[in-house]
Amino acid sequence: MAIYGSLNEFSLRDILTVIGGKSGVLTLDQQDGQILRLHIAESGVTRMSLERPVQARSEAIMLLRIFNQERSTFRFEAGDVDVPRQSFLRLSEVIESRPDTTIDERDLPHPKTLFLLIKARQVALPPDLDEFLGAAESMLATGASAERIARELGIAVNQARHHLQRLRQVKKVWPMQAHVDQLDHHQRQQRRSLGQRIASFFAR
Amino acid sequence: MTPLKLVVSGPVGAGKTTFIRSISQTEVVSTEEVSSEEIGKTHTTVALDFGQIDLGEHLLHIFGTPGQTRFDYMWDILSEGALGLIMLVPCDAPDEFPQARRILEYVVSRHPVEFIIGLTRTDLSANGWDVSDVAAYFGLPEHQVLAVDPQDAASARRAIHHLLQRI
Amino acid sequence: MSKQEQLQHQLDELTRALPGIKGSFLCTLDGMPVCQSVTDPNIDSARVAAMAATALGVGRRITDTLSTGALRGIKLLAGEGRVFIYMIGGKACLALVVPADMAIGLIELEVSDVVSRLTDIL
């Protein structure tokens, strides 16, 4: 099983989401001689090694610096790793210690993708994001795009896209699933029976 | 009787045009032009692919979209009124995953379509992502992702069957 | 002059010859902009390039299917403007966005010259 790619397309969050609870070694190759190897088990880092030593205030900050190098490639090989009594760094801490203003174009949603408010989710937000949510809340309650929110609030579309992505990262909003949110029971039933009828054509 | 509609989308090079050519009963209408960019193949779809399957009491229209963001208006136009969506994703091109996710979220948020992800090139590449990891990336249950060979009609039909079971 | 400069020059000349034109756009057939001469800042060149490619792609399927010969161009007529798209040789296209009241005869005259010059350069 291979999980690999470039940091140009994958954020730290994406990589950690895919790794999930698996154990194995995550290798980051900065393409300039610097290689980072993280032994991961139970969502924590149990061992870390670097090809070239680096100065940093904490391991988490050093990891983030390396994860910010877009030209780096990563590869995760699942397997058993030694699990000492405690891992010295939780991966969730690494994500949380990152200043959340650095979002790349690759992570921004399409300006017309519709997002829905997750009302039940309680989460503390930084003031600028809280302000945005307050202003956009009624639109997001029924589903709104960055484009529409930007227009109604008089802000730049890219700013709305940034805010939506940040809200998405903490699961306060999520892309709508129109077939769930927009169809009523009767319409869903109609589609289901239609789907079943024509599915039989493809069963053989 | 209004024809029923399925949409096939995905990033460039996923195999959308090939998929439709494999299953269409009629000659596929394609709009491929010479690619001016390096995309790993000579041609790319600029408008749509269109294929058709006669199911007896229904006619099924299958539309393929272009993959590049500059053609995003076609994602909307072609998804209008569709019953379901098949997102084809090449297993050995993780660089294209963010684009696939962008297209998927765009279409699914704006059109009430059920969808599956068809993971392509699993037979061609020893070094591709597997179904469970791709499902994890997209935040989907594993049963919503399956390996598909767009060149194989039987595999393509299985994918359509899988999608229709979800509707 | 480099090829790019020659192409740009042709488009700038066209803008001079058709006062009131909102923009002329040279694009690849797969929807990428090559160069443009734009007077209306609201027009997005990248959008025009992609949509011109789409329109021509569909147009070529229609003319192929109906056996009317090789597609030369498409006219889109609308309430507040018009869009003309011309094939340039076999690898590029020229899109013009003009106001609805611009004389079509004048456009056709100027454009046929430009199209053959652009074809020669490419």
E-strand count of chain C: 5
Largest Cβ-defined interface: A-B, 41 and 44 residues
Counting DSSP H or I runs of 4 or more residues, the number of helices of chain B is 5
Q: What is the annotated CATH architecture of chain C?
A: 2-Layer Sandwich
Catalogue the unreliable spans of chain B. none
Largest sheet of chain B: 7 strands, mixed
Q: Average pLDDT across residues of chain C?
A: 94
Describe the fold and architecture.
- Chain A is of the alpha+beta class and 204 residues long.
- Chain A has helices at 12-19, 59-67, 91-96, 127-142, 146-153, 157-169, 178-181, 185-199, and strands at residues 2-6, 24-29, 35-41, 44-50, 73-78, 89-90, 114-117, 144-145, 173-175.
- Chain A folds into two domains: 2-96, no CATH class; 106-180, Arc Repressor Mutant, subunit A.
- Chain B has a single domain (4-166), classed as P-loop containing nucleotide triphosphate hydrolases (Rossmann fold), CATH 3.40.50.300.
- Chain B has 167 residues and is α/β, with parallel strands linked by helices.
- In chain B, β5, α3 (97-110) and β6 (114-120) form a beta-alpha-beta unit.
- Chain C has a single domain (3-121), classed as Dynein light chain 2a, cytoplasmic (Beta-Lactamase).
- Chain C is 44% helix and 27% strand.
- The model of chain C has no long low-confidence stretch (mean pLDDT 94).
- In chain C, β1 (23-28) and β2 (33-38) form a beta hairpin.
- Chains in contact: A-B, B-C.
- The interface between A and B is large, with 41 and 44 residues.
